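User: Show me a protein chain along with its predicted structure.
Assistant: Here is one chain, sequence first, then structure tokens.
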Amino acid sequence: MAVETAVDKTMTMREAVAAHVRDGDTVSLEGFTHLIPTAAGHEIIRQGRRDLTVIRMTADIVVDQMLAAGCVSRLVSSFVGNSSAGSLGELRRRVERADPEPLAFEEYSHYGMICRYIAGAQRLPFYPLRSYGGSDLPSVNPALRKVTSPYPGPDGESEQIYVVPPVNPDVTIVHAQRADRSGNTQIWGLTGVQAEAVYAARKAVVVVEEVVEDEVVRSDPNRTVIPSHAVDAVVVCPRGAHPSFAQGYYDRDNAFYRSWSAISKDKERLTAWLEEWVHGTADHAEYVAKLGEEFWEGLAVGEAMSLPVNYGRRL
């Protein structure tokens, strides 16, 4: 009996973005506080992609940077802000003053976005939820609609319930701790909605801190949040989530988050930052090197090892 050989899906970030992100695409960038795919956003900027619809539950610094670089014409999100550290200057200019041009903004709640990803992943026409009852979000988002439930409500009567539409990005990009070469991807710590976002998409790029051998993945299968059959490209990009963190690899750069409000508030200063740190670097490895090893030592984390478990095997 022939043994199926795993496909090697590894490629550089430049190759992955060139192959899977096109002008006009709908691009999901997911990672909640943890494992934000910042390096992928920077490569999209370097390659000059335009007219993107960006889907990101927590639209934060990387979205602000992509907006300032002229990549994004539409944003779908459930939160906008600089992660408890201030504002997003470019996003505010676009929304509040249409400067330099308007931004189409489609707003949901966090749970509403989760439901959209679930519906997209399961190829459902919509997903029901109760949490919009009493909210004013339906008044600003016509995509939030009501349907009549085919089942009686708690009082036995016919019930109207809110639903959200599915989302099916052209490509989802997520960051993770590790994967094997075929794309079996492992995440621990805050897992967010990465798996649902990947399954909802037509294509998926997984960016990881390291590629490991198949045996490492098989030795701890419950950490495999995204299986290889859902992945189109694996990109090895150490420290690619900065300024967010990767559990077990490096800490969150809180100083950068605190500094971003002042940078992004000043359009000229923001443009200069992009020129120096994104356009002025060939790739993320150069960005990392530019920050310097002393900087990275300040974000180093100590060990907090997980105990081994016995999965057992047939004798």
